[in-house]
Amino acid sequence: MEGVLLLNKPVGMTSHDCVAKMRRLAKTKKVGHTGTLDPDVTGVLPLCLGRATKIVEYLTASSKTYEAEVTMGFSTTTEDSSGEEVARKKVNFKITQDEVEHVLNSMLGSIEQIPPMYSAVKVKGKKLYEYARAGIEVERPARVITIDDLVLLGDVINDNDLTKFRFRVTCSKGTYVRTLAVMIGEKLGYPAHMSHLIRTKSGEFELANCLTFEEIEAAIECGTLEDSLLSIGEALKDLPNLIIHDTLAEKVKNGAVLELPSEYQDLEVGSPIAVYSEDGRCLAIYAKHPAKQHLMKPTKVLYNEI
Fold first, then answer.
1. Of 87, 108, 121, 216, most Cβ neighbours within 10 A?
2. What are the tRNA pseudouridylate synthase B C-terminal domain coordinates in residue numbering (predicted)?
3. E strand or H helix at 12, and its extent?
4. At what angle do helices 213-222 and 15-26 cross, to 10 degrees?
5. Looking at residues 101-124, what average pLDDT do you find?
6. What's the CA gap between 35 and 46, in Å, rounded?
7. C-alpha to C-alpha distance for 67 and 58, rounded to whole angstroms
8. What pTM was estimated for this model as a whole?
9. Is 236 helix (H, G, I), strand (E, B) or coil?
10. Residue ranges of domains in the chain
11. 3-state class of 110 per DSSP?
């Protein structure tokens, strides 16, 4: 079994849990995921099976879309609903839709964000959550993220000294949406946390095309799961690509250096280029040569037999 399976990740499971379960269901050790989701988060989690595990790094999308809920009135240690309360302030007057939309619009573009203590970002060789679990808070360097789209979804609900609202965000890789929820609350003058999150899109992969584990198990029982897998070539279709003839394909399987097509001369060094056979198989991933600008070299050979 080989290809990319789009999983609708359930709540309560880590991404690693999902990989472990898929290994049992597919009866293979070759399963990997393409972007970590916290246990409380649901939604798009592409899983790579078999030979497709070689392309995990190319499917870690630069852009992702989420739908989230902010609860203002108290903050938590983890910046989401799973953490302990650390600050509280009553929202004792109505926050309007216009006020929320003004704040959301102010956060579009490139902004700085400090990663949360409960995250896998490394500082001095240790993951931040390791410090957090030991009760140690360390200085975290701010990182620049990009917010491409940030819109209010539905009404702003003011109730029981709390205010809640939902938003959709399309953002760059490395954005912490729970930290974004905290930042939104700060701009409105209140401690806040993220009370719900679902990833609806990862690159070109959309939630509507994802399967639940129940649907995956049913497909395995019927022997139809492979029909739901994206081929390696389909999964990489948005990369710059080159189709080669069979004679050259024989050289590619042995890691030959190739001429860089003229249309890709302006690519940055290291930018991936997918090389396909005439029958549509993605044979290898190449990249612009660091020293010889007119050539490209293989970074990953996917098929050693042609």
1. 216
2. 178-221
3. none
4. 10
5. 89
6. 8
7. 24
8. 0.88
9. coil
10. 3-61+204-234, 63-202, 239-301
11. strand
Instruction: Clarify whether 38 is annotated catalytic.
Output: yes
**pLDDT for residue 95 is more than 50:** yes
Mean pLDDT is highest, among 91-95, 138-142, 166-170, for: 166-170
Is pLDDT of 163 > 90?
yes
DSSP state of 10: P
Mean pLDDT across the stretch 274-300? 90
Res 291: pLDDT: 85
Say whether 239-301 and 3-61+204-234 share the same fold: no
The pLDDT of residue 306 is 43
Yes or no: domain 239-301 corresponds to CATH 2.30.130.10: yes
**CA count, 13 A, side-chain hemisphere, 179:** 17
In the block, tokens 């044979």 appear at 283
Q: Residue 105 in 3-state DSSP?
A: helix
Rounded Cα gap, residues 232 and 303, in angstroms: 11
The distance in angstroms from the start CA to the end CA of the chain is 18
Find where tokens 């701010």 sit.
Answer: 142
